[in-house]
Amino acid sequence: MFAIIGFGLILGKISIRGVSLGSSGVVFVALLAGHWGYQIAPEVGLAGVVLFIYCLGIGAGPSFLRMFVSRGKALAILAVTMMGAAGLTTWILARLFQLSPDLASGLLAGALTSTPALAAASEKLPLGSDVAVGFGIAYPFGVVGVIFFIQLLPRLFSGVSSESETTSADGLGKIVRELIEVKNQSMVGKRLRDLSVLARSNCQVSRIIIEGQPRPIPAAFQLALGQQLLIVGRVGQIETVIEAIGERCPETQYVLDVERQRRQIVVTAKELVGHTLKELHLLSRFGVTISRITRQDIEFVPGPDETIHFGDLLRAVGESENLEKFAASAGHRARTAEETDFITLAGGLVLGMILGSIKFSLGGESLSLGMAGGPLIVGLILGHFGQFGAITVRMPRAGRLLLAELGLTVFLAQAGCQAGDQFVSVVQQNGWTLCLVASIVVLVPLLAGFLVARFFLRLDLSETAGGICGAMTSTPGLGAVTSAIDSSVPATSYATVYPVALVLITLLAPLVIMAVS
Hints:
Blueprint: H1 2-13, H2 25-35, H3 42-64, H4 73-97, H5 101-111, H6 115-124, H7 131-156, H8 162-165, E1 175-182, H9 196-201, E2 204-210, E3 213-216, E4 228-234, H10 238-245, E5 246-248, H11 258-261, E6 262-266, H12 277-280, H13 282-286, E7 289-295, E8 298-300, E9 313-317, H14 320-330, H15 334-338, H16 342-357, E10 360-362, E11 365-367, H17 370-385, E12 387-388, E13 391-392, H18 397-456, H19 461-471, H20 475-482, H21 489-516
Antiparallel strand pairs: 1-4, 1-5, 2-3, 2-4, 6-9, 7-8, 7-9, 10-11, 12-13
């Protein structure tokens, strides 16, 4: 099993023009192993599903429920529209071409490049289903289709200048540091919060060079000629700030004191959640600067209008005593950031499995959330609240990603092996039909999302591009966006939409199975 996982991840690392399979490479190796007769016990795959889905719920919880009371409401509508279009298209085509429920749900999951959907569908289908076959066929269409559509998207926005919105892929999107010297006389005496160029470019001044050493920005800081400042921002945006303030200092050498002047702080305090950085006045109150935020595994440089979410991982820069004060105010606990409490992890998994096992009666039918829906719902609820009294249920990002990746790859190995012995015969029987259906299921939600975003929600190019990638759960698509659009907005809109799409597609796959059956 671990050989399949290992070779699958190696396959997933192979990148062709920036496109790679990632963890889904395990499916293709497992299909080959299953074709040769190797099998993995179904219980092993089920355990992987529970662990993977629960970790996704914990990660999505802080953003998902708060989505509907913030400006992300429009992006949530975008996700609902695209998921609905994908599900309806799959149902129509399955009826038209007389596809089985397992193939239809697999094609849906693959077209949306969604392993959670594959997990949810597999849990609802009997052993020996072809769901992984459909996923394996549709997945390449989902990856490539989103990337091509994203590259075409700027041309679909009439009246948008491609020169102002797009640029070459030479390093754009990478977060960098630049040391600059203040040369602009008009900047003298200004506070950082007064610099509109920083807000427009989503860049942050994190340190000032004093006696050759980088020091955190003091609370009463004002700009003066000759100051050397360390600026954090994305390539393609940071140049605007440099031109406005002064010029680069390419020859200056410096060493950052990251041990004492920088901390990773997890936000759990209600006093911070829901407020923008501008409203919080962190520099004047605490003497700290937020240089980066990590949300939904996406790291970005925040602007002053960026709203803080529960569970955000903030990279704060300041003097050690100021960092301690800010950490206490933010509700941060070292254990929260560094350790996983296995007691609460086990308790959450058990609650999720119990909820998934409960039978509900609906119209004479007996339904249950299953081993995908139950852990997802419990994970979302626990992730949303984060803490119950002295009990912390959140998981650090590194631990959550490790457990999710382990659960996902184990499940993919089992599902691929299970479908492998039928893969060749299914492709020979339905090959061109499955490819056609996969292409249409990819194209229809993309077009629906574009039309709704452009003409109903009136989103701009950056928000639309990031939102579409988030709704399609396409990380390769996000990579194509950040290499084409000169803005950090796509990353934040992706991080906003992704939790909604994650939940919707996990619930949609079982519904497609019921509708096609």
